[in-house]
């Protein structure tokens, strides 16, 4: 929109430049497409070929799934790289947005497999605690993994669980609570 027309003036005196008002519309991507684009680009930069990135909106946010290709590098040790990518995707999705969209990233169904492995570990260690009557301290875990252990063993008679330490070195302790347990 032209606000002021330029004038040439007389012999270079009294000239004025044009004043214009410029507006443009940048197409605003929704949080899900921003997050999916980020994950796709990052996986490409990591050298992951032949994978498919999908997203679906859920009641509690956005779920991004990645399948196919050699995705071990994107999962990392015990899912640490995947959690970092999830965190970054969440930042990208919510940047400049009014509300907050929770982003959950799952690569090759790793999260469900990890839950099953933690539940098996919890039951196996609970049996060991009941048999030996000695407490067992697990290695440091993230909060959601500790919660899986606590929830799994909540209904097991003779044992209880609690967490010790400070983040990021917080651990679950499985305690013998059966007959003859010391109440120290």
Helix and strand sequence: EEHEEHHEHEHEE
Tell me, rounded to a whole number, the average pLDDT: 86
Lateral arrangement of strands in the main beta sheet: 3-4-5
What would you call the structural class? alpha+beta
For the CA atoms, what is the radius of gyration?
Answer: 28 Å
Number of separate strands: 8
Shape: elongated
**Alpha-carbon distance between the termini?**
80 Å
Question: What structural keywords apply?
Answer:
alpha+beta; three-stranded mixed sheet; 8 strands; 5 helices; three-stranded antiparallel sheet
Report on the architecture of this protein:
The chain is of the alpha+beta class and 184 residues long. It is built from five helices and eight strands. The strands form three sheets. A three-stranded mixed sheet has the order 3-4-5. It has a three-stranded antiparallel sheet with strand order 6-8-7. Helix 1 packs across helix 3 (80-94) and helix 4 (110-132) crosses helix 5 (143-153). It starts with a strand and ends in an 8-residue tail after the last strand. The model has no long low-confidence stretch (mean pLDDT 86).
């Amino acid at each position: 929109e032209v606000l002021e027309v330029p004038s040439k003036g007389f012999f270079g005196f009294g000239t004025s430049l044009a004043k214009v008002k410029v507006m443009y519309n940048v197409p605003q991507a929704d949080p899900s497409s921003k997050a999916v684009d980020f994950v796709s680009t990052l996986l490409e930069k990591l050298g992951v070929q032949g994978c498919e990135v999908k997203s679906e909106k859920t009641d509690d946010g956005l779920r991004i799934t990645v399948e196919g290709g050699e995705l071990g590098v994107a999962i990392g040790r015990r899912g640490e790289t995947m959690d970092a990518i999830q965190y970054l995707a969440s930042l990208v999705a919510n940047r400049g947005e009014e509300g907050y969209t929770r982003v959950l990233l799952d690569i090759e169904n790793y999260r469900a497999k990890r839950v099953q492995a933690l539940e098996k570990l919890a039951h196996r260690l609970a049996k060991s605690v009941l048999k030996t009557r000695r407490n067992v301290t697990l290695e440091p875990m993230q909060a959601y993994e500790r919660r899986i252990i606590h929830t799994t063993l909540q209904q097991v008679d003779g044992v209880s669980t609690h967490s010790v330490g400070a983040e990021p070195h917080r651990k679950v302790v499985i305690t013998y609570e059966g007959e003859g347990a010391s109440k120290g």
